[in-house]
Write the structure tokens for this entry.
Amino acid sequence: MRRAFLCALLALSLVLGSACGAGPEPAGEAAAEDLTVIGMCQVGAESDWRVANSESMKAVFTEENGYHLLFEDARQKQENQISAIRKFIQQQVDYIVLMPISESGWDSVLQEAKEAGIPVILVDRGVDVKDESLYAARVGSDFLREGRAAAAWMAETFRGEAVRIIHIQGTPGSTAQLGRTAALEEAVAAHENWELLVQLDGDFTQAKTYEVMTDYLSSLPAEADIDVVYCENDNIAFGALQALEERGYPCGRDGVRIITFDATRGALTECLNGRISLAVECNPLLAPLVEEIIQTLAAGGTPEKRHYVEEQVFTPENLTQDLIDSRKY
Ligand code: GYE
């Protein structure tokens, strides 16, 4: 804990802050209490998954639970994430929790955190760094495994038939994009009658996907043969559905099969009504695992480096309204 230093810094910044309008963000009165200060750097609010992930963090890292949470939304920019980490280092927070937007470009700033003695916990996506000791642990999903589950469903569903696939990717270079893409590409390479028609960048958002998908569909002859749209998250699936249906492509068992990842409530509802054919779960409720890691570190222990969460797949056949209603996200 760095309470004394932080309190002094906060007092100073409160005094100077109004005069010079600069300096580290004050952590407020809470810092005067014996709270663990967490500097959290979220990607943004690009998807339903991301919103559920942020809510999970805010629900666990509360003052009642002994934490003071400094939450930064990087608005989908790595440079904002890097500046937030530098600010957290200046503020001498106890832990940094980072949801890295993409895998590359982290060596220097994580080295700075290490030199300042602040453990970094990665949530959701990973980083590609030369020295693995730059972070304490990573909590999240196995995106390659998720993609392979989708490919296995395709193989089972189409059983040797020709499959024409549109692939809409998430934020380029993010672990979720890399894993889900690698799984599809390896499956296409292994099935000679699966054809990848196009790979589009949907950036994990509905708006971008609607735009790129509408453009792409306009470039095809009317009623082109499309069997599957492999969407790397739910919001991509929503944008693709909208674009497909507007151009007269029915989606579901007798039309284009939409595959999605995340399986948040909106997508599960579309799956139950048949417009989405497969929803591969990606669990955003990761805060309890992050808290366990913090408790291990606080007790002087060494947490496991990698924590994967268990996930399942949903189809219109195995889903029920009760399951959707009982879901927290
Ligand atoms: O699938 C998507 C989000 O990295 C698992 O990022 C996360 C992905 C998730 O924006 O909806």
Remarks:
- The pocket of beta-D-fucofuranose is lined by residues 46-47, 49-50, 124-125, 141, 174, 176, 204, 233, 261-262, 282 (CB under 6 Å).
- The first helix runs from residue 3 to 20.
- Residues 7-23 have pLDDT under 50 and may be disordered.
